[in-house]
Amino acid sequence: MNYQWYPGHMTKARRMMEENIKLIDLIIELVDARIPLSSRNPDVDKLGQNKARLILLNKADLADPRCNEEWKAYFKEKGYFVVALNSRTREGMKAINSVVQDACKEKIERDRKRGIINRPVRAMVVGIPNVGKSTFINSFAGKACAKTGNKPGVTKGKQWICLNKNLELLDTPGILWPKFEDQDVGMKLAFIGSMNDEILNIEELSLLLIQRLKENYKGILEKRYNVNEEEEDFKVLEEVARKRNCFKKGSEPDLQKASAVIIDDFRNGRLGRITLERVKEQGVE
Asked: Nearest 5 degrees, angle CA 137-CA 87-CA 25?
């Protein structure tokens, strides 16, 4: 399977970011805590040079708690401010205002010396599709300011949102880079739902996920579906189909339907808290 997806509005979004970057003091970048590196867009680092940076490990409730702490330490070491949060339940949200003030301390002090007091910090919210930007903004603001949807590509244009006297947010559409040089990155993005499922081979994707889970979270498939994980991946998928009553006409297992069940269970945390990228894989441990 070759992972490529770059709708036209994303090219427009990148141009919009380039045009607006000079207006902002801080870039708030949301990443998916389950794949903190693969869910980052390298364009953001290029666009955000010389700007204060805050990384939000969103969907932290779906990720391995130990890995969340390791990734927080990893990004802090790289010079980013970091908060782990769950935008839907607002867990971790209270910490953000004070972290924003810390991240923009130099800018606030420069303003003060020039006699500019109480000018709000202007932050641009960025992230790849379906990482939870709009949910974060609405949750942070305490009201529905941004369109949300559990699929990529909901936010199509920019909008300024005044949160309080200290902070204004610029919401931007999610952007993926035009071509994945590393197909492993594309695969992980497909796992979490940052691509349009209609262009993916769901059966192939589920087999790859089964393989990853068997390698890193032994026993998790057995616990959820009561299957024998020692079997080869295809046999595990067939067994999940049987246990979940996924059949075509007659008694043939419906592997497409079973694949969708596994992927949906992973995306919604029903398999448990899983992180698919480890800090130690980056050679820093």
From this structure: 40
Name the nearest CA neighbour of 30 among 77, 96, 78.
96
Domain boundaries, the chain: 8-171, 201-282
Place of tokens 């953000």: 96
pLDDT digits (tens, 9 = 90+) for 11-55: 666 777 777 888 889 999 999 999 999 998 877 888 888 899 999
pLDDT of amino acid 267: 95
Task: Tell me the CATH class for 201-282.
Answer: mainly alpha
The domain made up of 8-171 is a member of CATH 3.30.70.3270? no
Nearest to 263 by CA among 185, 203, 180, 199: 203
pTM for this model (two decimals): 0.85
Residues 6 or more apart whose CB falls under 8 angstroms from that of 12 comprise: 173
d(CA 61, CA 59): 5
Same fold, 8-171 and 201-282: no
Nearest-angstrom CA–CA distance, 40 and 36 = 7
How far apart CA 253 and CA 273 sit, in angstroms, is: 28
Q: Average the pLDDT over 76-99 and give the result.
A: 92
